[in-house]
Design a protein that fits this description.
209 residues; alpha+beta; globular; disordered N terminus
Length: 209
């Protein structure tokens, strides 16, 4: 967990940055208001992952990198049957202040049948189907948080500033954050390590781009 959380926030930083570059909307996170922050985070996370895993029938290197990244991070092969399943982690990112209205529901590979699409140029990997993000109201988030079938891990920050202050920091003391109630985790923290692994592969992919 100590290694996973810094990787998660580092990953969040890079993916948000990629998304903002892709959408030309980096100032979204600077505006006050939990709903706007949640909306910006949801959009930029989706666009950021889409940028990292974008496929292209006109760029063979990019297509290979996208498929390899997806295979390494999201494909799960059953050893006995060789059946391919997909990582479908579900996360709820929110704050502890109800009036913040900062609630983002993040799902990986929610609809595996949509991961590939047929185009006039051939069958392409659909990177935007890898991640689904939704902005929720406090009531919707409260209900979702109590359903273990819908959420694997809840990441609760103290308030909006707690999120903004962490983005960009390299060295994060998760023990200190937990003791100071800056962040609270509820659920299967093993999924935090999965996010850490994804973060590492994102770094490698960007370095070799």
């Amino acid at each position: 967990m100590h290694a996973g959380f810094p990787c998660f926030t580092h990953n969040l930083q890079h993916v948000l940055k990629l998304g903002s570059n892709e959408a030309n909307s980096s100032k979204m996170l600077e505006a006050a208001g939990g709903t706007l922050l949640a909306t910006g985070m949801a959009v930029l996370l989706k666009l950021g992952f889409g940028f990292v895993m974008r496929d292209s029938v006109l760029n063979e290197k990019q297509a290979v990198q996208a498929k390899e990244f997806f295979k390494n991070n999201f494909e799960l092969i059953e050893p006995e049957s060789n059946k391919v399943d997909h990582y479908q982690g579900k996360f709820l990112i929110r704050t502890s202040k109800a009036d913040d209205q900062m609630n983002v529901y993040l799902q990986f590979c929610p609809d595996p049948e949509n991961l590939y699409v047929d185009t006039p140029l051939g069958r392409c990997f659909n990177s935007l189907a890898v991640i689904k993000t939704d902005v929720l109201s406090e009531e919707e988030a409260d209900k979702l948080e109590t359903d273990p079938n819908q959420v694997d891990l809840v990441i609760r920050f103290r308030d909006i500033n707690s999120i903004l202050n962490l983005i960009g920091k390299e060295d994060i003391d998760i023990v200190g954050l937990l003791l100071e109630n800056v962040v609270q985790l509820r659920g299967n923290v093993g999924h935090l390590f999965k996010l850490g692994n994804i973060a590492t592969d994102i770094e490698l992919l960007l370095e070799n781009a």
